[in-house]
Amino acid sequence: MRYLALAMSLDGNLADAGRIDAALESLRRSGRRALLVTARRLGELTAVCPRLERFDCVIAENGAVLHWPARRESLSLCGPVPESFVKTLSRRVLSPIERGQVAVYTHASNACALVEAVRELGLELQISFCGESALAVPPGINKGAGLQEALLSLGLSPHEAVSIGSEANDHSLLGVSECAVAMADALPAIKERAFFVTRGGAGTGVVELIEELVRDDLQAAKAWIPHDSLVLGFDGAGEAVCVPSYGDNILIAGPRGGGRSSYVFGFLERLIQKKYQPCVIDPTGEFEPREDMVRLGSRLRAPRASEVIAALADPSVKLVVNLAGLPPYEQPGFCSELFTALKGMRKRTGRPHWIVVAGAQHLWPAGGHTAAGIPSALGETLLLAENPGDVAPPILRQADVAVAVGPAPARTLVQLAKALDEAPPHLPLSAGQEDEVLAWFVTEGHWPMRLRISPGRSERLRRLSGHVEGDLGSGSFIFHGPERRLNLRAGNLSAFCQLAEGVDEQAWLFHLWNGDFSRWIRHVLRDDELAREVSAIECRYELPADDSRRRVLGAITHRYALPA
Hints:
- With 564 residues, the chain is α/β, with parallel strands linked by helices.
- Helix content is 35%, strand content 18%.
């Protein structure tokens, strides 16, 4: 299952909660968790929603208080609003003031009095609105923050959550959840934030959403949510080519030293930036983890499957499982046990979000492994291999997308097609240049496309040093002027800036108006953002030479932190 929890904001519709009893039972029978999110106080909830035990967790007081009905336990996420605030506010308003464990409530018409009381006392409080009520809570408290804490207590992350809301205080709730849904009678601003809107309002909309969740995990409502997609690379027009973060398997194939490691690290970086949890399985012990990754196992000691599951229980842990301590003939059996354990953990928590197998040919070699040891369904798995022909075909057939890296990516895809007993795909005439890969969407039947890759942070830092102080060789910029009287070679950005300061006005404007600077930055330095900025300056023919020179050099020195 993709979605394991449903967070329901029913502030204005708690009286309708009884209408969703049967739907909630269906939701929980499917193995999913139900969370009630409300601005109300716990003490008043039982009067309007007596069967709180239907929910795994209740997030009350606009995210300030968590309550677990099954355990009859509650937790305040912060201290209460100071009593001095209540006394000051009571002198300013005539309508009733109510206190919760944390929040202070009054009528929304008293909003100005709330703000004035905060200013008078010099406090740092947030004012939120829910229907006809206004409430004051400590900073950082909202429904989204409360949901994050509740999910963590249930062993889940926001990537496994669907939220539905309708009121003004539901923005943070929808912003935290992977899939945000608005009721039909929601405020326009909430509908704009949601991925889709239910056909019905209030309790009817919640029942509708639960039925779709249980029936097909919302797959009929969407292919995938744009913000959860993962970038494979950029096409010729500079548009990002993506895959969904859930459901697909990716094969990355290519020889050692051909850029495969750089591509994998870039992909891992994008996963971690989106707060997905990866688990890398390293059969040889040669995978070099990121600084923020934890390595389990060594050449002297093999890890146990139970240790792997225990380490992954913390959603913040990014794990590398080193199998070098296992003899090669024992690794397939261990991985069969590990994948079974990971499958069970994913069913409970949705994590780890991605499994990376650094050397699929070692765990599932072609012709050397029985079908009984091969996972029947991988799911969100990144397979790394030098030659696709060395990997068992049942594993290769599970790859939805194949990315070929290195100097001869077309040959790699031909090897994959041969291993799959398929006709070779129609391949681009040219590929294999630096910073380029061939991506084949196998299950969709699309022809392979050439993509420019987005390197990882370490690779960008390496290139940055080379661009600023290294020698670009044949990629150097040559100032030659309109009549080619000059032959000034700039082998890096520092040299370019020094020479640009000294060339005459005629030579400067010649290269500027021909677009030579942005072209060099785009095709040699591979910095599209800076190229666009410089190109905009090149098009301003009215600028004096000294002004345009100052702007171009300023853009370069600012982006690369060169001395002015």
